[in-house]
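Allow me, if you will, to draw on your knowledge of protein folds for a short while. I have a record of one protein: its chain in single-letter code and its fold written as discrete structure tokens. I should value your view on which stretches of the chain appear to form regular backbone elements. Thank you for your consideration; the sequence and its tokens are set out here:
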Amino acid sequence: MNLRFPVFEPDVGEEEALAVAAAVRRGEISGTFGESIAKFERAFASYCGAAHGVAVTSGTAALHLAAAALDLGPGDEVLVSASTNIATALAIYHVGATPVPIDSEPTTWNLDLDQVEASIGPNTKAIFVVHLFGHPVDMDRVGMIARTYGLRVVEDAAEAHGATVRNRKVGSFGDLACFSFYANKHITTGEGGMVLTNDEALAARLRLLRNLAFSQPRFRHELAGFNYRMTGYQAAMGLVQMQKLEPVIAAKRRIAGLYNERLGSIRGLQLPTEMPWARHVYWMYGVVVRPEFGPSRDELAALLGERGIDSRTFFCPMNIQPCFQHIDACSTRACPVAENLWHSGLYLPSSTTLAEADITHIADEIRRAARGA
């Protein structure tokens, strides 16, 4: 039997196709027609406990728009998780501000909040906090730090739809929060994203900047805006996907529980953790391969690939990204934990369609690869 286990397959079916077709027939083609966008914005913001949602073309666009809405720019330093998709730091970079990577802590792999406080300087204006792989950062503590030092907070929740901190959902803590609806996220609109905020003035600024900053008269522009409009038919798909979000999270947590049971006894594997105050939504199920496992991370990934089991490495940290080496605040900053995660971490197939037997099979292949198997 030739089994193949991709890292992730989106759960999109006939209901989404019908919703998209109906939106197209209603003329909801561009981002300025129809009702689906506003409905999707309200539904997702309400789910997360935020007052306002502003739908955009991608999670990357959401981050860029957030940085622009906060008026970050040259001379400003922004603390950012070292271990993240590069889009988080690019948002800071593309407004002319300086990203300052903060190393990971070794338990949840999120940014180390002790290092956040120690890294604040006179030019620090904001913190971009990434809820990595679906485990939330302790946003109560982030809020205390931000209030103490007068900093703005942006949550990068692209991998953390529905994650909670002390029963409060991520996306409701920061000045702004950014989500992605890319194909491998908990819910998808194909491409797409959203910025959430509880600040009415920030919401108005986001909407203005999203749509080329059109004002009156129409073709006179006080601000340099962006074309980051989501289409109506993407929003129609998002509304259908919203109905699946909690079942998707439940499936992700079930899969993580099965992996934990079957991988927990294998020496040399660090499994993901869930802090007592958190709900982890396991965007992807990641493991760290330690020396006592035997094969290296790359050797394990190759062995799994030969058996039809796809995997992905963790993220290359921001301090060693080649495109940021001309920035002293990046290139001279040591992030040893994040660098170790880059060299030794990988995530495993995490589709919601995985059966218990599939996870058992994947775990058995990992066990066979371990030293002494």
User: Anything to note?
Assistant: The chain has a mean pLDDT of 96. The longest strand covers residues 124-130. The chain has two domains: 14-102+110-242, 245-369.
